[in-house]
Amino acid sequence: MYPPPPGASPILGMEVSGIVEHWGRRRNAEIGDEICALLPGGGYAEYAVASALWLLPRCRAVVTLVDAAALPEVHFTVWTNLIDSARLSG
After folding, report:
1. CA angle 71, 73, 79 (to 5 degrees)
2. What are residue 55's DSSP bridge partners?
């Protein structure tokens, strides 16, 4: 019963992984690359659209494409907590 953010897809799903098939103006991946991403919605669709800013590459040697979908949520949560909230710096 939690509504999606304004402008987000009404289709459920925030965590995705897959193969890049098309890109828009900004890109940080090539067609055929295996990536994972965090979306505001639409992740359970057959095809999903993600900002290039939200993409992470999949490390083939370490994680399967299916398991890679869980990585962006963890990565961005840790980043927010350590860098934004705790103001950790290197």
Report:
1. 100
2. 37
Q: Report helix, strand or coil for 61.
A: coil
The 10s digit of each residue's pLDDT in 52-73 is: 888 899 988 889 999 999 998 8
**Phi then psi for 15, rounded to 5 degrees?**
-110, 130
Cβ atoms of 40 and 5 closer than 8 Å? yes
Say if CB 50 and CB 33 are below 8 A apart: no
Q: Provide the 3-class DSSP secondary structure of residue 72.
A: helix
pLDDT tens sequence across 11-63: 999 999 999 999 888 778 899 999 999 999 999 999 998 888 888 999 888 89
Contacts of 79 (CB under 8 A, 6+ apart): none
Indicate the pTM of the whole model: 0.77
Please state whether 5 falls in left (phi above 0), alpha (psi between -120 and 50) or beta.
Answer: beta
